[in-house]
Amino acid sequence: MAVLKFPDGFLWGAATSAHQVEGGNRNDWTEWEKANAERLAKKAAAEFSHLKNWPEIRPQAENPANYISGRACDHYNRFREDFDIARGLGHNAHRFSIEWSRIEPEKGTFDEQAIEHYRQVIRALRERGIEPFASLWHWTNPVWIAQQGGWENEKTLSDFERFVSFVAKALGAEVNFWIPLNEPTVFAGHGYVLGAFPPQVKSYWRANRVLKNLENAHQRAYRVLHAAGSAETRVGSVFNFHFHTPHRPKFPLDILMARLLDYFRDLRPLRRTTDFQDFIGLNYYFRDTIRFVPWGGRFGPIDVRNPNQWVSDMGWDIYPDGLRHVLRMVGEVGKPIYVTENGIADASDQSRSRFIRDHIRAMAGAMQDGVDIRGYLHWSLLDNFEWDKGFWPRFGLVEIDYQTLERKIRQSAWDYKKIIDQNAI
Ligand code: IFM
């Protein structure tokens, strides 16, 4: 196979989010975890017993403690050790998030120590030659925000703007790449359509209001970050993209449904905020093969019929070439793209090296097609707390022993390093 070279200065690294790795948080998710851990453990069999690895995950998935984020990876205290690992693995970029509930635990009360913590995080990255990508909202909210109605309440827009402004003034000189929001459609879909995430609403109408508010919040954050930043400041939110492909490739209704999902599930908030994105953060995980059905599909007339030849521990249909497709689709917007997440739940680490290689090859293919891609951040640096699934899904380049908090570098992390060192695939 031909060797594909990446441009000099291409960014390579990994991503995390505060709630999933830090430990010791107090936000709307920690409240929800306490209230829902028993329920999640009870319904685990119904949800996951079809998975091949059910016997291995079962003890954890049926244990309520699995659903409490607790001390997570204790990354809040061990970030230097973790960044030493990232540097040793050749990373020159890292995405992390700043936890709003730490910075502003009560409305209008800002915690200087918390901001100092993130200043130290950013400096620790820079000292190791790693470019920080700072997310400002990765799904968690301070409890007081949830109490006032979260993202359904327009007041949250000005509250978020004030938080962003505070962070931008404090850290604007130290960060070039800002990500105001992570995956707004996933948040709205899981929290307000499927009812799987807090606040467990099932209403398209309310989901739509949340999405609109988030789009608006992004635009306000964009202005604030540029006003407080420098000529180097770059602002772009992160969007998750699925590869939707028709089950019957020539059947018009399957094609139409796949294109509708592209738009409503993935593209809409991006299109509505394009003028306020200096770059696009693109996340890609799996394929959904779409079939029109008159009734009873996963989304009404839309059903998902994946071939599932290669599945992750979570049952996601892995399809590396889908990354090339979504990159080409998003490339049409005409902004530079960073792949800000791409990864696999793979506890045995049997598939991760191939996953990384095949996806990076697909990304290189999109670059050959003319798409302007500037970096790749793998999800994730560490095993972490996978939201309503808890701790059993293992996404890390680095394995965490949750008893001892020992870090163990997986073989796939070294295989990824080879690609990084060569800057080629
Ligand atoms: O863990 C999540 C992350 O928080 C958002 N994007 C998808 C990842 C894997 O599910």
Number of strands: 12
Terminal Cα separation, in Å?
9 Å
Low-confidence stretches: none
- Strand content range: 15-25%
Ligands (ions, cofactors included)? 5-hydroxymethyl-3,4-dihydroxypiperidine
CATH class: Alpha Beta
Estimated structural class: alpha/beta
The whole-angstrom Rg is 20 Å
Q: What share of residues is helical? A: 40-55%
Please give the largest β-sheet: 10 strands, mixed
CATH architecture classification? Alpha-Beta Barrel
Order of helix and strand elements from N to C terminus: EHHHHHEHHEHHEHHEEHEEHEHEEEH
Number of domains: 1
* Shape call: globular
Task: Predict the CATH topology.
Answer: TIM Barrel
In CATH, what is the homologous superfamily? Glycosidases
Helix count from the secondary structure assignment: 15
Q: Tell me, rounded to a whole number, the average pLDDT.
A: 97
Explain what this protein looks like in three dimensions.
It is a single chain. The mean pLDDT is 97. The relative contact order is 0.14. A hairpin with a 2-residue loop joins strand 7 (280-297) and strand 8 (300-304). The protein has a single domain (11-422), classed as Glycosidases (TIM Barrel, Alpha-Beta Barrel). The chain is an alpha/beta fold. Helix content is 44%, strand content 16%. The chain is globular, with a radius of gyration of 20 Å. Helix 9 runs parallel beside helix 11 (204-228) and helix 10 packs antiparallel against helix 11. The chain is built from 15 helices and 12 strands. The strands form 2 sheets. Strands 1, 2, 3, 4, 5, 6, 7, 8, 9 and 10 form a 10-stranded mixed beta sheet that branches. It has a two-stranded antiparallel ribbon with strand order 11-12. It binds 5-hydroxymethyl-3,4-dihydroxypiperidine. The site of 5-hydroxymethyl-3,4-dihydroxypiperidine has 7 residues, from loops. 5-hydroxymethyl-3,4-dihydroxypiperidine (IFM) binds at residues 17, 20, 183, 283, 341, 379, 386.
